[in-house]
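Following up on my earlier thread - several people asked me to post the actual chain instead of describing it. Fair enough. Here it is, all 325 residues.
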Amino acid sequence: MHFPVVYVGTVSHYQLCAITARELGEDPLGSAPAPAAVVMLAVPYARWKHHREVSHMSPAVQDVVRSLASVPTLLTLMPDPDYAPAGYVFAARLNRTYRGFHQQSFLIAEANLEEAFIALLQEDWDALSPWEIESPERMLLVCTHGRHDSACGKLGYPIYRHLREQASAGTQIWRSSHIGGHRFAPTLLDFPEGRSYGFLDQQTAEQILWQTGGTEQLRGHLRGYMGMPAFAQFLEGELFFQQGWSWTRTTRTLEVQALEGEITGKPFQQKNPVQKAHIEICAAGRLYQGTVVYQKTGQTVMNSGIVPLVEAHHYALQDWGEVPV
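Reply from S.P.:
Thanks for posting it. Predicted structure:
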């Protein structure tokens, strides 16, 4: 289905930012979040903010969060009775490693949720051991957080429903809170590998679910591998396109990331764009190199509704390939 976009000056008058971003030709590659750790809790929507926003957490949890040197990314999931019985909360912590994300999962009694949440934040595995369960083989998280941005609710929910109906045993499909990049909705995280996708439709969502077909077909949908920072995701993504699904089971380490210019937490929106990023990735005894080069600064939209367009930097991978070791 085609969704028209109308512009007046520099203002988008289309309601959904994801449709505007597509019309503007944005490529989501390089936009995947790269957290060191993720903590997930499946609680009713009315309680999401109590486990995502520090100002709404209990005083005890606030004290713990403020004491941490590094706070994990906090995600809330919509409860699913097929994944957790009544009276229990599914929870997980995923820590990033050079192999992907190491996941530990738990079924926590409601009465013990606050102490378990603190234990997840502090990595207190002894306290969590009574609740530990075998982790699912895969978890696909689809952002349907419509109150954060309407694009995620309107575009994400149909993809969630389709995947939920298609998935086989061993793969769990969850409705997730905001996972970043709502202008690329529908968005999806594939754990424990840690690959992120956007601009999904039913066909590409099924391809990701079953890991079938050529990965080259996922150009324009891949946001990146969450085990590496933004510019490294360009080279890692190209290797994914070239080598296929077997690449997702290959251990990848980032050897070098030499930047020409300063980098901030939002490299594609920072005032002065990075000019070049020299990347080396080692995988299965092979070394790959590439250079990510600044191309131009264009316009995009960050939120749904009648909002002004903002500047975003565009990059391309050049001079990449395997080199002798």
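The chain has eight helices and 17 strands. That should answer part of your original question.
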